[in-house]
């Protein structure tokens, strides 16, 4: 992610030559969420479109960032944007997390059950009860979280604000809209990941319950 962030200004300058071409290729590789794709697609200014695309991918985390860097090495992208030749020499490394290192060191018999629990938990869709608990944990910055973390359009957030008079009801409606848009990807683990990133990260003690196994 840090590598992509450091190249952001240079990439905006290069990719603005055909922003739609880049967007369609990124979408074909599922580097954007569907709401994020629609939001970026709606932007008419090439430079702003590329900026929104890069910001969205950075918000999605390291895996999406690595995916974009790999996409930029693709022959179609290289032929369309000759100035991207420097990307081919970049090495995208993955730093193993502490949990991954511990898992590798642990005896095989000790990791079977935890891994199964994690898999089940990651595929578990978030419930309304969990959404309400999260809604109570989100403060006055809920609109920023909606736009930046959940990729909800400002128009939708304004509509929610008009329809709901209470703060918690507004946040709950926003989270419900996110769940509807994400469909099968609206897991508790996914929501936890989105709310743990960058400047809008919520305190771990307020959202770690989303990772608890049933």
UniProtKB/TrEMBL annotation:
GO terms for biological process: regulation of apoptotic process; signal transduction. Residues 127-197 form the Death domain. Pfam families: CARD (PF00619), Death (PF00531). SUPFAM superfamilies: DEATH domain. Residues 1-76 form the CARD domain. This is Uncharacterized protein. It comes from Pleuronectes platessa (European plaice). The lineage of its organism: Eukaryota, Metazoa, Chordata, Craniata, Vertebrata.
């Amino acid at each position: 992610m840090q590598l992509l962030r450091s190249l952001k200004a240079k990439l905006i300058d290069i990719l603005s030559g055909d922003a739609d071409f880049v967007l369609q290729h990124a979408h074909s590789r599922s580097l954007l969420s569907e709401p994020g794709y629609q939001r970026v697609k709606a932007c008419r200014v090439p430079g702003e479109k590329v900026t929104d695309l890069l910001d969205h991918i950075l918000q999605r985390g390291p895996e999406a960032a690595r995916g974009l860097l790999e996409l930029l090495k693709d022959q179609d992208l290289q032929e369309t944007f000759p100035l991207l030749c420097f990307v081919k020499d970049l090495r995208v490394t993955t730093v193993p997390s502490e949990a991954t290192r511990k898992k590798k060191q642990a005896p095989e018999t000790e990791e079977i059950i935890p891994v199964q629990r994690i898999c089940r938990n990651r595929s578990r869709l978030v419930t309304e009860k969990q959404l309400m608990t999260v809604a109570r944990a989100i403060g006055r910055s809920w609109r920023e979280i909606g736009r930046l973390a959940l990729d909800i359009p400002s128009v939708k957030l304004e509509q929610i604000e008009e329809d709901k008079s209470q703060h918690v009801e507004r946040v709950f409606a926003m989270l419900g809209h996110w769940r509807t848009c994400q469909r099968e990807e609206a897991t508790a683990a996914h929501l936890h990941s989105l709310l743990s990133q960058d400047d809008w990260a919520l305190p771990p003690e307020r959202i770690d319950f989303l990772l608890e196994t049933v």
